[in-house]
Amino acid sequence: MKWIHSTILLLLCAIVTVHVTADEAKEVILDTQWYTSLQNSDPIKRLQMLDAIKDKVVKAQGQVVKVEESNLLKKKYRIVLSVNLPKIKILYYCYTNTEDYSDLLQPQDTFEFSGQFIVATPLNTRIDTILCDIILEDGAVLVK
Predict the structure, then answer these.
(1) What is the residue range of 102's domain?
(2) Rounded distance, CA 109 to CA 100, Å?
(3) Among 23, 34, 35, 137, fewest CB within 10 Å belongs to which?
(4) CATH number of the domain to which 41 belongs
């Protein structure tokens, strides 16, 4: 009887582990629907939404502000992107070692990227200006 309980417990643990691993593997797309939900939320809910995507791969886009040298997060370059919405402003700090981005990207270019979401830092108490650190995995300039 003890053997049966151990086997059931082991199977349940395996199922939970597979479920968690599958959730972690999903890419979170920060699109119009996600931004609308974020800006229509109260400040505490905004923090919860941002905390929910911590350490996940996100896909988003923003307007290039500048590309500069950096030594944070063990990366050589930081791409600063801006997303201006009616109620909130988001600044993405995308960190990379790829030098090509400094030559390729120009201010006001639309840059679509994917990368690991590290942390979100509110820049005021209303939580309507947010700085998001991203370790860049891939990116491309959108041609209009």
Answers:
(1) 27-142
(2) 15
(3) 23
(4) 2.40.50.140
